[in-house]
Amino acid sequence: MWQRTDNIFSSWQERFFVLTENSLYSFLRGAKNRADLERTVSKIKLSDVCGISLVDRKGQLMIKIVTKKNGRLFLRKQEGLSDWFEQIVQNGSALKFQNCNRKLENSTSLIETHLSPDPGKCLCWLQLPQL
After folding, report:
1. What is the pTM of this model?
2. Minimal CA–CA distance to 19: which of 102, 71, 86?
3. Sign (positive or negative) of CA dihedral 11, 73, 32, 83
4. pLDDT digit string (tens) for 76-89?
5. Which of 23, 31, 56, 69 would staple 37 via disulfide (CB 3.0–4.6 Å)?
6. CB burial class (10 A; 0-12, 13-18, 19+) of residue 7?
């Protein structure tokens, strides 16, 4: 797959990508040894992704990823780009769902600790985070 940032002087670079359940790693293609491979790795945490979309630029389909830290990143590939897009979205959604569940569990346990022995009487009002 090919990668390009949204910088003015950025050019397309061929990369080798690995998608995990919480990150997208890219490695420079053609690394000769492990040291070269480790030096050329970049990591995008899916939790840092603000937006992801399929875009058509100059007749070519690309994945546009917007991150909190690195801004915009574009990915292109001859075949299977839609599969990559769907999998990145699915992994990102699953990660955000897990985070929401964790927040909700924490909020629920916080409310339970503030309930009086009489379930009809609450000692204080807590606002649950909006999901």
Report:
1. 0.66
2. 86
3. negative
4. 998 889 899 999 99
5. 31
6. exposed
User: Measured between alpha carbons, how far is 22 from 95 in angstroms, rounded to an integer?
Assistant: 7
Residue whose token pair is 């000692």: 123
The token pair at 36 is 């070269």
Cα angle, residue 87 at apex, residues 85 and 90 outer, rounded to 5°: 110
The mean pLDDT of 7-36, rounded to a whole number, is 84
Type of residue found at 60:
Q
Quick one: tokens of 40? 């050329």
pLDDT tier for residue 26 given thresholds of 50, 70 and 90: confident
- In which order are the strands placed within the sheet that holds 42-45? 42-45, 23-28, 13-19, 2-5, 71-76, 60-67, 49-57
Q: Report how far residue 24's alpha carbon sits from residue 88's, in angstroms, rounded to the nearest whole number.
A: 8
Q: Which sign, positive or negative, has the C-alpha torsion 69, 70, 74, 77?
A: negative
Candidates 60, 16, 58; CA nearest to 36 is 16
Which two three-digit tokens encode residue 2? 């090919």
Q: What is the distance between the alpha carbons of residues 22 and 10, in angstroms, rounded to a whole number? A: 26
